[in-house]
Specification:
Length: 396
């Protein structure tokens, strides 16, 4: 079974941010591990983390030192306030990268589609303060978050996305992103990182949008009926009272776009039409795209659908299964660090393919069943093996 290197290796590289760490009552690594265990077990606030520690103290003592017992919720909060978020993000990404050597080699016909999207942590909003906004990269093949980056308070995703690209491995991947990331600088960064891009086009690229729309409308006038081929594909889905018809047209003649030379690596453009009928109400949406990867219409249609995995498997999970916004943490460092820890827990549960069930059910089970949580800790945090001292690891 594929798995990353033990997270503890990378956590131990983090510098204790306390000025007089040697004089502190609580060990830095104990605080980090308790926080991970608590979040995996359903904790949503600093008080929850402390309560979890007290309720599970006897069990935690079997593998943590805890020289002065369980830290207070204020102690957890202060540590997360002073912990360097960039150092923690690097720790997280190094851990995920340790998965790659075995997991990512792909054949020539296979591509890892990596959707990029941002999420606002609403609970971090304070009086006169903007909420923390995180941009995440999701691997559709590994089913894991590859990395995330906070958007600077004086900037937006346009600057954060290239910074995220600098710290994660993207070679050979197809990057998909919403219209806010449809920027020449982001397209060029994808090519620089030896990846391809599939970017949605809207009004922020008005000339490009108008050119694509003109090509599409002309094609429709000349070809009122299309047959499935490399340049046209359609898909139908029915379920839960919803009927969906999606179709896609791709075009290769870049000379029809007046700004095509300004987009690094551009090879195609296309349009996806989505018709939905839900409870008798019909809607139609048209989405325009540019891409540096030569694709059939079927492949583009599939890639645009996979893009929504970052919403369903990351943002929705963080909002619903982890209730990320419940922790009203207005300190930016603490909010960002807590988001990284929550994403670590999300990835661990996603890697736990042997145990079926929803994300909420897995969190509940981790809180109820020490054996289940110990198994996850040993597999992904401590990396227990047959040559290790058994007393160093969690037990049921």
């Amino acid at each position: 079974m594929l798995k990353p290197a033990p997270l503890i290796i990378f956590l131990n590289d983090l510098k204790d941010p306390r000025a007089r760490s040697n004089a502190c009552e609580h060990k830095f690594i104990d605080i980090l591990i308790i926080a991970i265990c608590a979040i995996m077990s359903g904790a949503e606030t600093w008080e929850d983390i402390e309560s979890y520690g007290h309720d599970k103290k006897d069990w935690l003592c079997t593998f943590l030192e805890l020289p002065h017992g369980i830290p207070s919720h204020d102690c957890f909060y202060r540590i997360f306030c002073v912990l360097d978020p960039e150092a923690l993000e690097v720790c997280f990404i190094r851990w995920i990268k340790s998965y790659f050597p075995m997991a990512l080699p792909l054949g020539e016909s296979q591509t890892d589609i990596v959707p990029i999207d941002g999420k606002t942590i609403r609970g971090s909003r304070g009086k006169g303060k903007r909420a923390v906004h995180m941009v995440s990269a999701w691997s559709s093949r590994l089913r894991l978050v590859l990395g995330q980056k906070k958007v600077d308070t004086k900037s937006n995703e346009i600057t954060a996305v290239p910074e995220l690209f600098e710290i994660i491995d993207l070679k050979g991947a197809l990057i998909t992103a919403d219209a806010i990331s449809c920027q020449k600088s982001i397209a060029a960064k994808c090519i620089e990182k030896e990846a391809d891009y599939l970017l949605a086009v809207k009004g922020n690229q008005e000339t490009l949008q108008n050119d694509i729309q003109a090509v599409v409308e002309s094609h429709w006038e000349q070809n009122p009926v299309d047959q499935p081929c490399d340049h046209f594909a359609e898909q139908r889905n029915t379920g839960h009272g919803r009927h969906e018809y999606r179709c896609c047209w791709v075009f290769n003649d870049l000379t029809l776009l007046s700004t095509h030379t300004e987009w690094e690596g551009l090879k195609q453009f296309g349009v996806v039409q989505a018709d939905r009928t839900i409870d008798g109400k019909a809607t139609t949406a048209l989405r325009l795209y540019i891409t540096s990867k030569a694709m059939t219409a079927e492949e583009m249609l599939t890639a645009t659908r996979i893009h929504w995995e970052v919403e369903n498997n990351v943002h929705w999970m963080l909002d619903i299964a982890f209730n990320e916004d419940a922790c009203l943490t207005q300190d930016k460092n603490a909010s960002e660090n807590l988001s990284v820890f929550t994403t670590v827990c999300l990835n661990i549960f996603n890697m736990d393919a042997a145990n079926k069930g929803s994300m909420k059910r897995k969190r509940k089970r981790a809180g109820w069943n020490n054996g289940y949580l110990a198994g996850l800790l040993n597999m992904y945090i401590f990396g227990e093996d047959s040559n290790s001292n058994a007393n160093d690891y969690p037990r049921a």
